[in-house]
Amino acid sequence: ETGVTQTPRHLVMGMTNKKSLKCEQHLGHNAMYWYKQSAKKPLELMFVYSLEERVENNSVPSRFSPECPNSSHLFLHLHTLQPEDSALYLCASSQERQGVINNSPLHFGNGTRLTVT
Amino acid sequence: GQQLNQSPQSMFIQEGEDVSMNCTSSSIFNTWLWYKQDPGEGPVLLIALYKAGELTSNGRLTAQFGITRKDSFLNISASIPSDVGIYFCAGGSSNTGKLIFGQGTTLQVKP
Asked: Per the CB < 8 Å rule, is A106 touching B45?
């Protein structure tokens, strides 16, 4: 149990579908993140939320739309994805926004394995 | 932009052997983190380092924050089969507010 729960664990969707990934953290953290993990590549930061406010958007295509209704929940809404978007999508949380305050490492969920057909 | 070079990319060792991997960068970091990722799971934090020169152990794992603040290494002593997985380093900078990940080191242990 990591304290960060992601659902679903696996998702297969067509390019015209709309789906959402869900993340919930039980650690009382103030910052939440979406990362994309592709084979043989470093983790790519997609979005950062601090105290429910989006503070970073790393040039992510608009077909990915995040939502953070409160400090414990984070969603990633997906629509009209491309096959190259197939990857493991990881949610993470930290006590404070990473890099702003030290001693605040990221805690990851187990990810959603997304396949776009 | 900031980049980390993590090496080796992969290792295949015999059970009982010691393992060493490292991350280097041309940039200075305030924080070095080491994570392990098992198949089908997310990365789990192993060791966090916050001061240049800091040497920290967690069981059979030892990690050091390089004195130049541009590198870090992770050692695993007396490897066992459950050490198999992908190990990631990550460097954090309070100047940029960013955490940069290495490409990972895949470790396989032969019983």
From this structure: yes
